[in-house]
Amino acid sequence: MLIPFLDLQAAYRELKDEIDAAVARVLNSGWYILGEEVEAFEAEWAAYCEADYAVGVANGLDALTLALRALDIGPGDEVIVPSNTYIATWLAVSAVGATPVPVEPDPATYNIDPRRIDAAVTPRTRALLPVHLYGQPADLDPILATARKHGLAVVEDAAQAHGARYKGRRIGGHGDVVCWSFYPGKNLGAMGDGGAITTNRADLADRIRVLRNYGSREKYVNEVKGVNSRLDPLQAAILRVKLQHLDAWTERRRAIARAYSEGLRDTDLTLPQVPDWAEPVWHLYVVRSPKRDKLQAQLTQAGIGTLIHYPIPPHMQAAYAELGIAPDALPIARDLARSVLSLPMGPHMQEQQSTVVLDIVVGSAAVGPIGRSR
Ligand SMILES: *Cc1c(COP(=O)(O)O)cnc(C)c1O
After folding, report:
1. pTM for the full model?
2. Atom from ligand 1 closest to the CA of residue 89
3. Residue 156 in contact with ligand 1 by CB distance below 6 A
4. Exposed / middle / buried, residue 206 (Cβ in 10 Å: 0-12, 13-18, 19+)
């Protein structure tokens, strides 16, 4: 492969000495569950996110599931989710026994369309669960206003949005609970699974802290039926190292996104649009083309790694056949799945590599000049 979609090993090459030292520190400490290393990361992550509290958990799906449990959402309840998201957003709702109710995105930003939410609210609705998809913040003010109007909680899926800002303020404390994944490929990624929640609500931070650890605050005293979903101290130590480089890595992603947007401006591809209140962190750079499959095949042939986020929307997955939602009932999600393509993107991609990608995309027979009919 000439240019991989994402070079995960590059972060280790860049930070090998620091990461090795952090891992050795944990191994030598003799303390392998929760403890100082996890607490230190939680404090640093909360500060970074401009939130009062952070609680480390085992992964992003658990962060979402525990957030919903802490809000007492369960069987008989509905949670409004985007129709186009990674299936984990929906699975968290199902995991607590509630029903995901999809709302279509604004195709310009790929994020849940706040204007469509009101019509999906029923007497059973308990929460809104927007996703900051591809690293771009969802339009939170109208979402929060709709939640206030109906007395609903807001849980944010920020698994792709580490460091992004909405109207100048970091994602991390707008809604009741904000859920993070540190899956290796995320903008802040561990070397294994990891996750966290951030919140400004002391009550919810406390409940999630107890739920993640067998429902226990004090060893062998169990207040509630909790789970085992703790952030590993080894991962916490690695995340502390990487967090110090996150802003610099985001800047490198922004430079690549700028080069792509500039280089593809005069093509008939649909490019990402950034509202003036959004400061995205470019987890992914997603273009759209009716000839997506042809374009992807040509890039693969040229040795350029691309991915589709996501090829099958949740409502069209066998896992959600039970909801009985026809494919065409959510036409925006259906059509996005047929046309989106994610170009190589990552903090260790070289400027010159983005030039190679651009040359091949612009030269592709699947891509025309702007204005030509498709
Ligand atoms: C990665 C991701 C998750 C799940 O995170 P895991 O750590 O893999 O459990 C949830 N939602 C979105 C939007 C994601 O991208």
Report:
1. 0.97
2. 11
3. no
4. middle
